[in-house]
Amino acid sequence: MWDNHQMLGSLANALFALAVLIAAYFLSKWVINLPILPLKAVSVSSSGHGGPSGSPGSGRHGGFKHVTREQIEDTVHGQVMGNFLTVDLEAVRNTFGKLPWVRAARVRRVWPQSLEVTLEEHVVLARWGSSALLNVHGELFRAASDEELPLFVGPDDSPLEMLRQYVVFSGLLRPLQQNIQEMNLSPRRAWRLHLETGTVVELGREQMEARLERFVRVHDRTSGQSNPQPHHVDLRYPNGFAVR
User: Sign (positive/negative) of CA torsion 89, 94, 96, 97?
Assistant: First the structure.
């Protein structure tokens, strides 16, 4: 073995590489604990708003509707470690991104001793069944909310489709000053609306917009403001609709 110069060379190279790795490990540990370029401020702000600054761990709250001061402080305490050069930006971003009301998080260094964190909150549009919320981008997320929101019930693959139709249906109903309280989409893609007046509107699977427009046009003649609102309106007829 000791006469095999090729094997000895390979062994020496392996030992050298191992030594370099060990040295790099201890050097990185040493650099992390260096007093040079310590983080002195972490700015956490809402997307589009100027945010407050504070020392690492203070995590002040500002410009947010749902993200709390406590959540910011816990995240800063738990993930902002190391100095200006060694702090793990990806870990900080991922942790902020896991907060219930955060849609996206961006983190960057600001020379010479601070971090800037920008959070985009979800803008909620509706409740999705009993388990989630739907934002204005058609994305589902899980968070607590006590807001009065319309309820969407539909197949798992339909959040974006229901969002788009909600915008269209709401625009068509605007002349009646009636809001959608609940919207249902069946597995067969049939639509049903529950208005805040208590009226249930059956739209079916085809020509939903045209059917709803027809209902809005004749609404005053069939169920005017001075009369009780209809309980059920079936628009699934080619040239008219049924009112109960």
Answer: positive
Amino acid type, 26: F
Predicted TM-score (pTM) of the model is: 0.75
Q: What is the pLDDT of residues 200-233, one digit of tens each?
A: 999 999 999 999 998 888 876 655 554 667 788 8
Listed residues 121, 140, 159: the one ending a domain: 121
Relative orientation angle of helices 69-79 and 89-97, to the nearest 10 degrees: 150
CA pair distance 27, 20, nearest whole angstrom: 10
Residue type, 19: A
Banded model confidence at residue 163, pLDDT cuts 50, 70, 90 = very high
Asked whether residue 150 falls in the same domain as residue 236, the answer is yes
Query: Looking at 54-58, 132-136, 188-192, which range is the least confident one?
Result: 54-58
What residue has token string 């945010």? 51
Same domain, yes or no: 130 and 221: yes
Q: What is the DSSP letter of 9?
A: H
- Quick one: which of 40, 61, 41 has its CA closest to 51? 61
What is the C-alpha to C-alpha distance for residues 100 and 143, in angstroms, rounded to an integer?
5
Contact 128, 138 (CB under 8 A): no
Q: Determine the structural domain holding residue 91 and report its residue range.
A: 41-121
Look at residues 121, 144, 173 and tell me which one is the last residue of a structural domain: 121
| Domain assignment of residue 28, yes or no | no
